Amino acid sequence: MKTRDQEYREMFMAEALEYYDSMSRHLSELERNPSAGPALNELFRLMHNLKANARAMGFTDLGEMAHHLETLFGLIRDQQRTFSGALTRVVFAGVDAMGAMIRAIGANQPLPDAQALIENLDRLVRGEEPVFEEDEVAETDEEAGKKMELSDLVYIQVKKLDNLLNLVGELVIDRDRIMTLAQELDNPALLATAQHLFRISDDLQYSVMDARLVGVGVLLNKFPRVVRDVASAEDKEVELILSGQDVQIDRNILQIITDALLHLVRNAVSHGLETKAQRQQAGKPLVGHLTLSAMTERDDVLIQVRDDGRGIDTEAVRRKAVERGLTTANIAATLDEQAVWAFLFEPGFSMASKITDISGRGVGLDVVKLALDSLGGQLRVESELGAGTTFTLVLPTSIAVKGALLIEVEERPYAVPLMHTDTVLALQPEQISVVGGVLLTHFQGQPVPLVPLQLLLNDEGDEPLPLATRNDVQGAQQVLVVNYNNRRLGLVVDRFIRQQNIVIKPLSKPLDTIDLFGGVTLLGSGQVCLVLDVPALTRLFITKRP
Asked: What range defines the domain where residue 14 resides?
């Protein structure tokens, strides 16, 4: 597996070789027409970029050569020097030397000595004549004749990768069917072929997924300007800290969460961080701190937005939820912090006291929840009043292939994305109680409501779910504990089948209107399997609980 340094080195090499080819082309054009402004401007730009990239990678000598050539092209552009005579000879030699340096970097060899060329470039910058050693130019020309390099990297449109991944998904489905058939027929030759196909398709699948990965930094690095603008509008001082830009994630996932992350960052500056006067009164540093970080956790990518601001006023949110009619005062009084904070993600919910360009317009954190739901992701919230708040986006690495737990209800298989599963439990009747017509158990010290999945799947109309009684608990109960928006729910199922990766396809009409299903997949047996939408199931239970 490639290290980050190897990846950056390859990217640098690809760009450097492109720059070198472009420089050679523009130099020839400039030699034919010394007044060619576009060619001169492009040469200046290429030298500037190569200088910056080389210095960032630690290739000091190459960066120094590019810097001197950049300076010289600036003088030519300003008509202080003329691209003719000895200057032309030195510039061509300098570009050739940079090509040799780039090739040495690619071969992991020491860079050739270019001190004499740099000294000549210095002389030309000062307006002096260069000094040539015997046969210097002839040897250089004899050597940009032996070498013609092509980049090891190619650029490809994302939609082509999307199409390729879809085709791989189809292959994975057929692969599983062939494997199941080989096992049923008990044919050793067919089974060996199926196993070989399994290994190849696995490698192909992960290779295509790897090609779609990008560093989270391509998004995170856009936020310093966003924070600066919002802080200026709110008259606040904010220091932004970025980390984890190297963490890799599917490019499409990054695209989908862009608006959600933008909203969280703007919300943190506008709502989370106090004004300078408020921070001074609270005994805090005048400058607020906002941290935007990425990290990996098992197969997931976590992106966190953390501020050291005022924190969430749970009681204020509780009162607002009652005012908005989202719950009753009696029920609100029984809710814990996480359940109260969940109201922040209801459509149109806002704690802003006044409407500004930043907040209070009815576009709330629900956009974050919707984006995560579409990806099968999760949102974690941690907050301490007066100390700050942390929002954590839990994202899959890829959206094409997902880990899932296969379960069975009424002799039908269903798939539940692992992203939303906490654990599986085998509960005895004495571990289950009935409270207010709802089955209840305790897991990790917290009460978890239970509901037969069959009831939710077969639910029709606006009637609440039937009241549960002790008679509903006969023998051991197989329970899948799912988690959505910091709410746990135990789904009682008939049995657990297995865990496997699945390729999710969208439902066709008219099934695409059913909220409880997030798509469909095909099992190795050829059987169609519906993928359950845990957020929709959780919302249905909350809405219809007795």
From this structure: 4-142
How many residues are recorded in the chain?
A: 546
258 alpha carbon, distance to own chain's centre = 9
Q: Which CATH number do you get for residue 525? A: 2.40.50.180
132 plus 59 within the same structural domain: yes
Distance of CA 9 to the CA centre of its chain: 22
Strand pairing of 412-417 and 528-532? Answer: parallel
Does pLDDT of 4 surpass 70?
Answer: no
DSSP helix/strand/coil, 516 = coil
Domain end point (choices 396, 420, 453): 396
Distance CA 399, CA 371 (A): 13
- My answer on whether 230 and 378 are in the same domain is yes
pLDDT at 273 over 90: yes
Question: The tokens 């802080």 sit on which residue?
Answer: 231
pLDDT at residue 147 in the model: 53
DSSP 200-233: HHHHHHHHHHHHTEEETHHHHTTHHHHHHHHHHH
Angle made by CA atoms 73, 77, 78, in degrees to the nearest 5: 120
Per-residue model confidence (pLDDT) at position 356: 47
pLDDT digits (tens, 9 = 90+) for 357-389: 444 333 467 788 888 877 878 888 999 999 999
Q: Strand 288-297 relative to strand 238-243: parallel, antiparallel, unpaired?
A: parallel
Q: Which two tokens stand for residue 101?
A: 């340096």
175 and 194 both lie in a single domain: yes
For residues 294 and 216, is the Cβ–Cβ distance under 8 A?
yes
Residues 195 and 232 in one domain: no
Q: Are 445 and 508 in contact (CB under 8 A)?
A: no
Q: Give pLDDT tens digits for 240-267.
A: 999 998 888 888 888 888 888 998 999 8
Asked if residue 434 and residue 418 are part of one domain, the reply reads: yes
Of 396, 428, 457, which residue is a domain's last? 396
pLDDT tens for 286-310 read: 999 999 999 988 778 999 999 999 9
Are 174 and 230 members of one domain?
A: no
Count of domains observed in the chain: 4
Pairing state between β 300-307 and 288-297? antiparallel
Among 155, 145, 157, residue whose Cα is nearest residue 18: 155
